[in-house]
Amino acid sequence: MSTSPILTLKGVHTHIGAYHILHGVDFEVPAGEVTMLLGRNGAGKTTTLRTIMGLWQASQGQLSFKGQPLNGLATPDIATRGIAYVPENMGIFSDLTVKDNMVLAARAARHAGELDTQRLEWIFGLFPALKKFWLYPAGKLSGGQKQMLAVARAICEPRALILIDEPSKGLAPSIIQNLVTAFNELKRQQTTILLVEQNFMMAKALGDSVAVMDDGRVVHRGRMKELAEDESLQQRLLGLSLGAHQ
């Protein structure tokens, strides 16, 4: 049984230039859960995340976080409300060290000495490679380590909601499992996650609820477990089944 929503989208439309990308998106993100946002390429998933963050403004509809409207707010104002965003391109600063990347992400810290030591050790527990490469330029990290840094930057301070766009893309299975473990730990810490993902086994392992998009609309909402157990529904909504990815 789902909890009350922390984030709600009602009838959200987004235009990018002359292109009408989102066509009335409706779904809720229950507090304290991992919600999967699934769909074929080009369905509008990334646009939905970027609209929530105010990187693109909704042309119609309502977005609310903890019951307060997000419409019209600038991205920094949305971030200060407790929402973090990990984009598909990770958004890290390649020329800066891992340490400097973390300091920049922490609103309460002007230098490394002001980082929350207890939280930093918790993050190192999730991603030991970041401690090992603390003084390395981020651009010299492996793809998996860069993704770990991107997630670490989003959680360097407590956030109520994290939006994550395809974190497993191009990563080895062992790194993906590391991310699954980290996301489950975040959920235990009462952090809500909205996760766009193409790896269906990761979706099955993590997801509590799910929204499936097609052509700029949400065409299915429900519990991830129900979708994972219904191969005909997977085939109809996504064009393939979770069972094919064992």
Task: Please outline the helices and strands.
Layout: E1 5-16, E2 19-30, E3 34-39, H1 45-52, E4 60-65, E5 68-69, H2 75-80, E6 83-86, H3 98-105, H4 117-126, H5 128-132, H6 143-154, E7 161-165, H7 173-188, E8 192-196, H8 200-206, E9 209-214, E10 217-223, H9 224-228, H10 231-238
Parallel strand pairs: 3-8, 3-9, 6-7, 7-8
Antiparallel strand pairs: 1-2, 1-4, 4-5, 9-10
Helix pairs in contact: 3-6
GO molecular function: ATP binding
Organism: Pseudaquabacterium inlustre
Keywords: Amino-acid transport, ATP-binding, Cell membrane, Membrane, Nucleotide-binding, Transport
Description:
It comes from Pseudaquabacterium inlustre. This is ABC transporter ATP-binding protein. Belongs to the ABC transporter superfamily. With 246 residues, the protein is of the alpha/beta class. It has two domains: 1-82 and 159-240, Rossmann fold (3-Layer(aba) Sandwich), CATH 3.40.50; 94-158, no CATH class. The chain is 35% helix and 26% strand. It is built from ten helices and ten strands. The strands form two sheets. The chain has a six-stranded mixed beta sheet with strand order 6-7-8-3-9-10, with helices on both faces. Strands 2-1-4-5 form a four-stranded antiparallel beta sheet, covered by helices on one side.
Which features does this protein show?
246 residues, 10 helices, alpha/beta, disordered C terminus, 6-stranded mixed sheet, 4-stranded antiparallel sheet, globular, Rossmann fold
